[in-house]
Amino acid sequence: MTQRPGIFPTFFISGFECSTFLWKDKRRRNLIEETQHDRHAQEDYEILHSLGIDVAREGIPWPLVDRHGCYDFSMIDPMIEAMQQTQILPIWDLCHYGYPEDLDPFSDEFIDRFARYCRAAAEYVIPRLHGPYFFTPINEITFFSFCGGEWGWVAPYKTTKEDRFRFRLALCKAAIAGVKAIREVEPTARMIHIDPLVQVVAPRDRPDLVEAANHETYVDTFLAWDILYGKEHPELGGSPEILDIVGANHYSFGQMEYREQGPHQALDPHDERIKPLHDLMQWLWERYHRPMIIGETSGMEAGRDEWLKDVVEESLAAVNAGMELHGICLFPAVDMQDWHTGRWLHNGIYDLVQVGDNLQRVPCEPYIAELRRWQQEFNRVTTLDADPLSDPVELQDVIDAAKRLQPEPDRNWH
């Protein structure tokens, strides 16, 4: 009998890059295709199965399946078949930086159409897979609003703070409508709303920017979550049940120095202004007191194993402080490209190596060894059996490991 059951069947989860945005050149990008996840779905899920990971963030590409309100979900059939074969549960990303070209995201039609799409997607995937069922209606609302609302990287190509605020509000309205539509199909479906957890500081020689930097850190970072929770703009229908599970993304570039124009500048790993991940998680926990996961995290190149060690230790410090942490998502499972340069980032559990027209999956052995070490610390399986749900994650094992190891929050990211 599980003493303290987790929400997910494994503590470590993963996922696949699935962005489908209109890029600066006005061309549609499809990262599912660019990483050949569509061609390698069975192999990719077998990789997760072999790693003892039973939950995967997976995308349904809204602009590719929705043609003027008519749906064709057949392109996700290979993923569904792979999930069926490996018994891996998906967290379905329903909008990952892309929407149909015939929609104006500032219109009421955008909200209505997104809700209809969410309902149709739920009706398609739920009968084909065992539960429980997890959805992320709109991935990284805050970051998407920067990319499309202020920086002009992706559609709708806006370039002002005012447009960013408008775009974020529209995305929040659509997300709330999407949650309600999904739960009309499956009332027990769980929602995971994922956004970056960041800190922004003023340049040392610009004390006049301290207030703006603090506003981004302590107000702007949380506004989308606040709206979904119902703390802000309650007339839109947010509530704790709408917010449900909070997914906090954590990368090395998430602590930044404020810039008045364009993206902020990532802090050097030795910068004394960096705050421990534990502290950032504490802000999130005290604000919502909702179940949490690390929604995405990964190191780069040769530092992936050390990054995982640091993130897990910070997470265990958070658990010791009483936070309800249900998982850490090692994202991506297989490598992905830098959007701007096309350079492979080498941040996956497996790298991608070009062999002819095929992207071969090659394991990052030090990263995997560090994952195995933590699975053993948590008394968890390192490979999945035929029925992973028969042995759900026991959060008490994670809590006991945190008490035994007593990790201290550490600001050093080097």
From TrEMBL:
The lineage of its organism: Bacteria, Bacillati, Cyanobacteriota, Cyanophyceae, Oscillatoriophycideae. It comes from Floridaenema aerugineum BLCC-F46. This is Family 1 glycosylhydrolase.
